[in-house]
């Protein structure tokens, strides 16, 4: 549900593009609307397909009978049945998907006790519910893991294929009376790292500070041949991107002019690219967790919390920038959805994992009564969150159109 928040930061690259002006926004609006729905469907379909394929493949490897592989919910728009008896279907509501095993009562994998009791010996061995707990854990975890792997492969391939443009991480000017000046940063300081993240270019420094509004960050700089650690708390500033969207970013009051020839293309080797990709994924997860944590301490910005409408809007905007930004968006949303699904909320993969881990520890499953209560609670949480983000997205778009 917070994927749009992270995507908005990355789609602009945190280079703080100037506001285009009201007339240009209105001129671009029809194109954004035209691109939004198909881009959203492509992005979400890829992510859902990969997620469910993770469940499907591990289930097949464990000899589990699979009834349905569905992208989307509700009425079937298109489908076919393969030689294993699995129904592959594309459904009318494109907001998720599921793999339904033989012996499940519904798409949430609630066991059909009557069917299981009447199944023959051969089929009974292939039922998901009758597999040992570690095989069930592997099947459930495979979906989120597939999303995480997809993110890694995309970011790694983009890094190897395109490299990255960078400028040296040297502070050009510290503005008077700014946060940076009060903290002790000086002109000419070379930034080494921020919050433990390596800074390879000034753009890294910008992004790490910008994604930490009102949160303390630890900056390691090189000065006069030695290293110093300086802690600053970036001020929160609201900016507009080239699409007219507002977002809250951190600023500390440093600038750097870029001269001719200072921008270089850096291409990492195969091994270094692996480390850089993992660091990028760690950054996304860390900043997403920090964003959610802000809500518990009263710093949360509800305008940055996005649901289906916001994701569709961001997808349309990013699609106007080209295929590479759209592929990058797929990677970012895939990671967010993979992590979100690991939360221990019944109805999500993480909820099922919590049940199975409890079963592994106890040596027997939780009672059906406990599981049923958990599923009802999980359904209420997920439904409430979906309704909240949908209403929030809609109201924000209405307010923006009137402003």
Can you put this structure into words, describing what you see?
The protein has 403 residues and is of the alpha+beta class. The N terminus is likely disordered. The strands form 5 sheets. Strands 6-5-7-8 form a 4-stranded antiparallel sheet. The protein has a domain of 102 residues: Roll (Pdz3 Domain), CATH 2.30.42.
Cα Rg: 24 Å
CATH architecture of the domain at 165-266: Roll
Largest sheet: 4 strands, antiparallel
What quaternary form is this?
single chain
Q: Give the tally of β-strands.
A: 12
User: What sequence of helices (H) and strands (E) makes up the elements?
Assistant: HHEEHHHEEHEEHEEEEEEHHHHH
Unreliable segments (pLDDT under 50, ≥5 consecutive)? 1-28
Mean pLDDT: 83
Helix content: 40-55%
CATH class of the domain at 165-266: Mainly Beta
Tell me the strand percentage band.
Answer: 15-25%
Task: Walk me through the topology.
Layout: H1 3-11, H2 22-61, E1 66-81, E2 87-101, H3 113-118, H4 121-125, H5 133-162, E3 164-166, E4 173-174, H6 179-183, E5 190-194, E6 197-198, H7 202-210, E7 217-223, E8 226-232, E9 235-240, E10 246-251, E11 254-255, E12 264-266, H8 270-296, H9 308-319, H10 323-341, H11 349-362, H12 368-402
Antiparallel strand pairs: 1-2, 3-12, 4-11, 5-6, 5-7, 7-8, 9-10
Helix pairs in contact: 1-9, 1-10, 2-5, 2-9, 2-10, 5-8, 5-10, 5-11, 8-10
